[in-house]
UniProtKB/TrEMBL annotation:
GO function terms (MF aspect): 3-oxoacyl-[acyl-carrier-protein] reductase (NADPH) activity
The name this protein goes by in its record: 3-oxoacyl-[acyl-carrier protein] reductase
First-level EC class: oxidoreductase
Signal peptide start-end: none
Annotated InterPro entries: NAD(P)-bd_dom_sf, SDR, SDR_fam
UniProtKB keywords: Oxidoreductase
Family: Belongs to the short-chain dehydrogenases/reductases (SDR) family.
E.C. number: 1.1.1.100
UniProt cross-references to PANTHER family, sorted A to Z: 3-OXOACYL-(ACYL-CARRIER-PROTEIN) REDUCTASE, NADPH-DEPENDENT REDUCTASE BACG
Length: 259
């Protein structure tokens, strides 16, 4: 399927690995002009080179922290008029809210809620003026299935989802859609970090917990980052112009509800 986004400009944050990298690669396969941002220059440049080699796409790599004003300015200097924005950032590791102080909460809310909102503030008006825009936020299934060890993610990401519910209905008439993808267990570095913390807290072997989590999923496995990337590419396509304000689970059927 031709997704109809050849020549569009895409800005993907948190793009050096995992689901962010997969989204960037999927978009590059659709012949978009790609700008990717992450904090670690070496990993980012390696990813950029790999995407160029695999797709032939133009890829600009910007090393920076998107949670800072300087990082956002650098990203938008490299891609001042994005047609596509994919907001992705690491969440907080598992923990007990009794151990979190105000600064911990502010860090988590800034990363998982306020920064994606700020990136939308800086880009959606231009998208509406040009008559095309696609925003996808990589969130988490924790907004639908609260995970006791992820209290900060449960709270901050739910705030982002609530904000998008209002904004997306203001932009759709100008062909700008905003959606959230809610990954379940995905075989990514972030998932491995999560399980490593659970192993340390419980004293159980990492591999036991890893296998157990896969066995609990109806699919009997972890999702792959590339599966997330392909879904995001479709949401960014010209074919998805009637899909907005949605929270789309990609979790192997693990969410137990009907709606």
């Amino acid at each position: 399927m031709d997704l109809g986004i050849t020549g569009k400009r895409a800005l993907v944050t948190g793009a050096s690995r995992g689901m962010g990298r997969a989204a960037a690669l999927a978009l590059a396969h659709e012949n978009v002009e790609l700008t990717i941002l992450a904090r670690t220059p070496e990993t980012l440049e390696k990813t950029a080179a790999e995407i160029r080699a695999l797709t032939g796409a133009k890829v600009t790599a910007v090393a920076g922290d998107i949670t800072t004003s300087e990082g956002r300015q650098a990203a938008l200097a490299a891609c001042p008029e994005p047609d596509i924005l994919v907001n992705n950032a690491d969440g907080e590791l598992p923990g007990d809210f009794r151990n979190w102080g105000r600064e911990d909460w502010l860090r988590g809310i800034d990363r998982m809620m306020l920064t994606p909102i700020e990136m939308m503030r800086l880009t959606v008006d231009g998208m509406m003026d040009r008559g095309f825009g696609r925003v996808v936020n990589i969130v988490s299934r924790s907004v639908k299935i609260a995970q006791v060890e992820l209290g900060m993610s449960n709270a901050a990401r739910s705030g982002l989802v609530g904000f998008v519910a209002g904004l997306a209905r203001q932009t759709i008439s100008r062909n700008v859609t905003i959606n959230n993808v809610l990954p379940g267990i995905i075989a990514s570095d972030g998932q491995r970090d999560h399980v490593a913390v659970l192993a340390k807290q419980s004293g159980r072997p990492f591999e036991d917990i890893w296998r157990e989590r896969a066995a609990q999923n109806p699919a009997g496995r972890y999702g792959e980052p590339d599966e997330i990337g392909a879904y995001i590419a479709f949401l960014c396509s010209s074919k998805a112009g009637f899909v907005t304000a949605q929270n789309l689970l990609i979790d192997g059927g693990q969410y137990p509800g009907t709606f």
